Amino acid sequence: MKAIHPYLNFPGNTEEAFNFYKKVFGGDFPGGIFRFNGTPGSEKLSVGDRQKIMHMSLPMGPNNMIMATDALPSMGFKVSFGNNMYIYIDAESKAEADKFFAGLSEGGNPEMPMADQFWGDYFGSLVDKFGVQWMIGYSAPKQ
Question: Where in the sequence is the domain holding 12, given as residue range(s)?
Fold first, then answer.
C-alpha cells in the first residue's frame, strides 16, 4: 500500500476547514480548489451550492494527503459526525506532535493531552472545531 488518504465530508464548510488545516500543517492545495459550478448537473443547484467545494486536497508529508468535499443536502447528503473515525498523525518528533496538537486544538476539544504513555509512545487525541477526531503520536526510535 502506497498511502492512505482520509476523505472527509463536510456540511458546507470544507473550504473553511481546509484553510484551517493549511494554517496548522502548511502546504498548498495541489491542483487548486474544485467547486460544483460547471460540473454536470450544477445548473440544478442553487447559486450558493455551486460555489461549494466538489473536491480539494492538502498534502500531509511526502506521501499522504487529506481530501474532502461539501456533502450538500441539495444533492441528497446529510453529514453526521460520529465517533467512528480518527485521523492518526505519526509525528517525527515530540515538538512536531505538540505543534500539531496545539494547532488542531484551537477552538476544539482536547480529549487526551499529549503525554508519554505506558506503551512507550508520546500520544494525545482531540476533536477539532469542525468535529474531526485526531490522534497524534510519536514513537521514539528503538535502540
Answer: 7-75
Report mean pLDDT in 10-residue bins for the chain, 143 residues: 80 96 94 92 94 95 90 89 81 96 98 94 95 92 82
**What CATH number has the domain bearing residue 122?**
3.10.180.10
| Pair 11, 71 in one domain | yes
**Does residue 104 share a domain with residue 50?**
no
Distance CA 54, CA 23 (A): 21
